[in-house]
Structures are given as C-alpha cells and as structure tokens.
Amino acid sequence: MGRVNLRPQKTAMLVAQRIVEDINRRGNKVGDRLPPERVMLEDYDIGRGTLRESLRFLELQGVIALKPGPGGGPIVQQPDSVGLETAITLLLQFENAPFRSIVEARTALEPMMAKLAAERMSAEQLATLKHSVDHMRANLDDDEIFLEMSRLFHDTTAQGSGNALFGYLIHALLDMLDGSAMGMEYPERHRVATCDIHEKIYLAVAAGDPEAALAAMEEHIAGIWRYEEKHYPQVLDTPIAWGVRG
Q: End-to-end alpha-carbon separation of the chain, Å?
C-alpha cells in the first residue's frame, strides 16, 4: 500500500506544478518567455502573492529565471543538478552522515553506469572520454588538470549510461565529494594508476564490452576507496555539511 501524504500541499506549490505542466504542454524550450503576470493570474485564478511565491520556487529549482525590468518576466531554463545536490546534502547533514556515505554510494552506482555506457555511449561521448584519458596522461604533473579530467571522465561515463538519473546523481555526488576542496592530495604514482585504470575502462566501453567495463570500474572505485581509507580516514568520517568541505 502506498504511503499517504497527510500534509495538504500549499496553493503556491500546486500552481508551480501547473506552470510546469503548461511548459511541457506548450513545448516551451530554454529561453522561451512565459505568459505575462496578468495572464497567469487570470489563468490560474490566484492572487499576485501566490503567483510570485510559485515563480520564486521554480526559480530556486532552476526551472525559470526571473528577468527584471520592462520586457522581462519568467524565462524557461534547464534545471541542473545543483538543486539535487543541495537536497541530498541537507538530508545527509540532518542524519549526521559522513562523507564515506558518498564513496559507498559510488561503489554501488558507477560500475553499473560503466556497464550501461558500454552498451549505449554515443560516438561523441566516447571521444570526450578518450580526450579525458589522453589529456590527463599528457599532464600528469598538473594537479588541476588531473582533477578536472577525472571529473570529466566520471561525468561522461555517467551521461553515457543513457540513464539521466545516473548522470545527475553522479554530478551531484562529485560536487559534494570534491577532493581538492577537502584537502586530498594525489601523488604522481596515484595519478599514473588512475590514468591507467581510466584507459582500461575506456577501452572496455569503446569495445562495447559491458562486463569488462563493469569489472574495470569496480576495480577503479575499490582503488579510490582503499586510497582514501588509508590516507584520509578523517575526511571520510567528517560529517557532511552544506557548503562545507573538510
């Protein structure tokens, strides 16, 4: 039996849902302007305060941007993973969950993403994956490039899974577990090993071998876990906090 929500939804939230439904129904694209305030007040039969609360909520969720001044108003936007990251961070903070929760989640999610990527990744995404490996290897002495290319590799693999939820989840989790901001350092030996396993994953994905891609990603995430557990256990045990890194 489904869970019953005993809390009635506020009018502003219901109106926000109707606005999103209408955006989809009209086929609005990013950059399209929504109807003017007077039209929306009439269409939704609400007061100005309720409408503005609805629009402000949608702005915070990244669905619209409120452009000020003459000719302004609500403009359709493409939501990103920021809202998801904030929501997950706050949920975990109030549970007093440590950063190791994120690493554990990656061990469960990323191997499956690599497996799906071997079956679904586009040629363009595959080229981006290869670029991340090649650019990392060509700049192994550059910490900033190492972190940037590692992030690009994992983001691209998640997107290449063809599952949008995986893409957003990994993007949010990587934002939360930003090694550079948490004070983690990666010696050259570790960077070389990372580049090698990234190449192994890339080759499995490029060959369209799901099981090899899954196994290689499992090996990679397990290696990340061992490295961080050995050198930065205090970081992994740090409680997650919104806007705060270790």
A: 42
Question: In this structure, is residue 244 part of a structural domain?
Answer: no
Statement to judge: residues 110 and 132 lie in one domain: yes
pTM, whole model, 2 decimals?
0.83
Instruction: For residue 8, give the 3-state DSSP assignment.
Output: coil
Q: Same domain for 137 and 107?
A: yes
Per-residue pLDDT of the chain (246 residues; tens, 9 = 90+): 444 444 456 899 999 999 999 999 999 999 999 999 999 999 999 999 999 999 999 999 999 999 887 777 899 999 988 888 889 999 999 999 999 999 899 999 999 999 999 999 999 999 999 999 999 999 999 999 999 999 999 999 999 999 999 999 999 998 887 744 567 888 999 999 999 999 999 999 999 999 999 999 999 999 999 999 999 999 899 999 887 554
Q: Closest Cα to residue 155, out of 173, 167, 143, 172?
A: 167
> In which domain, by residue range, is 151 found?
82-236
